[in-house]
Specification:
The protein is mainly α. Among the domains are: 3-133 and 285-323, no CATH class; 360-444, no CATH class. Helix content is 54%, strand content 9%. It has 22 helices and eight strands. It has helices at residues 3-8, 20-37, 52-60, 71-85, 112-132, 134-139, 145-163, 165-177, 194-209, 236-242, 250-257, 263-284, 286-306, 312-325, 341-357, 361-366, 376-386, 389-396, 399-404, 427-439, 443-446, 477-491; strands at 45-50, 94-97, 102-107, 409-411, 420-423, 449-455, 463-469, 495-501. It has a three-stranded mixed β-sheet with strand order 1-3-2. It has a three-stranded mixed β-sheet with strand order 6-7-8. The chain is globular and about 75 Å long. The termini are far apart. Mean pLDDT is 82; it is low at 1-8, 71-92 and 207-234.
Length: 505
């Protein structure tokens, strides 16, 4: 594009103040680039404006503006507010919900330039990733999340009114403490039977009609006969088979088999684990999700600037924010807190485009499948759809970026007096660094593998857990006792945990 053509473009706005009309114009132009140039596939957009305090409130509730109240969310709010007011943390400019339609919450204190940047980032970048990445398609229900959140908020409020705030908080505290162990990691959640679905529906309708929830979700309503209860099965193997043990989702097991929980308490467990399951794909795609959104907003604002649709001042404001987001502090910088997922994700996606457009011989050697491919947009869309952080890094991290980020590996052997530099920048080192970095994003290694392995419901009712130890990393004793305390509360009987070493892969 020539300078004359660039100057011929009419800026969308020329001041800091935003209006809904200006935001509509900006959204339309962004949509044109996102859909027709980048080829993004998005949910319909719904953009809402909320205050800074509302943004902080929603941010403290794991990014869910419509959420039940709980003291832990308030604790997070106080923390985030304190950090923001003392200048130690930038305020979230936006929140976007993985839903259909995709709802983006923009902060009313944003300038028009920031509203434009945020729309490109959230309403199109995150939106595309949510709709197309395989983890979100397999594990989340974008069509039903808002209705479910509304139900959860109203249900818990009704339980507080009926059973008392303290009784509800007691269950929520325990469930929140265990929510990391309330997801299905390796298999799809079992689908409820028709009888269970009908019974759960009656439970959920109960709070609206002031019916007794206690009478709604019983063995009778679920169509079970006493002799069909797992407690009637004899022998450990048969009882394990009856209860589908081992079970990785502890909250699910407690919901189905706890001898002491009442129906309304089980429904609260279901709410907490459903929320945890909904957020689980985001934990596995932080680098990719933020990288995708950052790449999209950078491409769009750069194109708008090239076309003369935004002023030089607005572009500089956007680039200032962008630069802050993708900053990767050095290891000895006070701001360093590990690898910035925005920085790594954006750099990898820029690098993929470079490898497609201007590959070096090294790139052709490492990435023969797409080096020199003129369709860099298609390569990126394929990556966004079919990978998670671990596999994305393993597949696409280039020697060029390893050098740029100055990555190397350290061997920290407790039997050795010193740290040892294990891998440097050579061919073998690049492969090992990439493998080790990818490994650090593997959720299986980041979170403890604790499973229910036995529960004798017709005997002493002791709940037995097994922790699979990986790389010699045992649970902290204080954390272990805290987990067991909450488990005993929800189970009602003794709970024990044993540790076993993981089998060599």
């Amino acid at each position: 594009m020539t300078t004359a053509e660039t100057k011929a473009g009419t800026p969308l706005f020329d001041g800091p103040e935003w209006t809904f009309e200006l935001m509509g114009k900006a959204r339309d132009v962004i949509e044109e680039i996102a859909l027709n140039d980048l080829g993004l596939d998005i949910y319909p957009n719904q953009i809402e404006i909320i205050s800074a305090e509302q943004m902080l409130d929603a941010y403290s509730c794991a990014g869910m503006p419509l959420m039940y109240q709980h003291w832990s969310f308030g604790k997070h709010f106080v923390r985030d507010e304190t950090l923001y007011r003392t200048g130690r943390q930038g305020l979230a400019y936006e929140i976007v919900i993985n839903s259909n339609p995709c709802i983006s919450y923009n902060m009313e204190e944003n300038t028009m330039a920031m509203q434009t940047l945020v729309m490109a980032h959230a309403a199109f970048g995150h939106n595309h990733f949510f709709k197309n990445n395989y983890l979100f398609k397999q594990w989340t229900d974008a069509d039903g999340i808002h209705d479910y959140l509304a139900f959860a908020k109203n249900y818990i409020a009704a339980c507080e009114e009926r059973y008392g705030i303290d009784a509800v908080e007691e269950v929520l505290d325990a469930a929140h403490a265990l929510q990391a162990q309330g997801v299905f990691r390796y298999g799809r959640p079992p689908k409820p039977t028709m009888e269970e679905q009908q019974a759960m529906q009656r439970v959920r309708e109960g709070y609206e009609s002031s019916q007794s929830v206690l009478d709604l979700w019983t063995d009778a309503t679920l169509g079970r006969r006493p002799e069909e209860d797992p407690a009637y099965d004899a022998g450990r193997s048969s009882r394990q088979k009856a209860m589908n043990l081992p079970q990785e989702n502890i909250l699910y097991f407690l919901e189905k088999h706890s001898p002491v929980l009442q129906a309304w308490q089980k429904e609260i467990l279901r709410i907490v684990r459903s929320h945890a399951q909904y957020l689980y794909p985001q934990k596995q795609t932080k680098v990719m999700n933020e990288g995708c959104a950052t790449f999209v907003h950078y491409y769009i604002i750069s194109k708008l600037h090239d076309e003369g649709r935004i002023t030089q001042g607005a572009f500089m404001e956007m680039m200032h924010s962008h630069t802050n987001v993708v900053l990767q502090p050095e290891y000895d910088d006070p701001r360093y807190s590990g690898i910035n997922p925005y920085a790594l994700g954006f750099a990898m996606m820029q690098d993929i485009r470079r490898i497609c457009e201007n590959p070096t011989e090294e790139d052709r050697d490492w990435f023969p499948d797409f080096a020199g491919n003129p369709d860099w947009r298609g390569v990126l869309r394929d990556a966004w759809e079919n990978y998670r952080d671990e596999s994305f890094i393993q597949q696409f991290l280039s020697p060029n970026l390893i050098r740029k980020f100055k990555l190397f590996t350290l061997v920290d052997d407790e039997e050795q007096p010193n740290l040892v530099v294990g891998q440097i920048h050579n061919r073998a080192g690049y492969k090992a660094i990439r493998r080790d970095l990818a490994h650090s994003y593997d959720i299986a290694y980041l979170e403890p593998d604790i499973q229910v392995t036995d529960a004798d419901l017709k005997g002493d009712r002791e709940l037995i857990l097994t922790h699979t130890v990986r790389d010699g990393i045992h649970l902290n004793e204080d954390d272990k006792e805290e987990v067991l305390k909450h488990l005993r509360q929800l189970w009602g009987y003794d709970v024990s945990m044993t540790a076993v070493d993981a089998k060599p892969s």
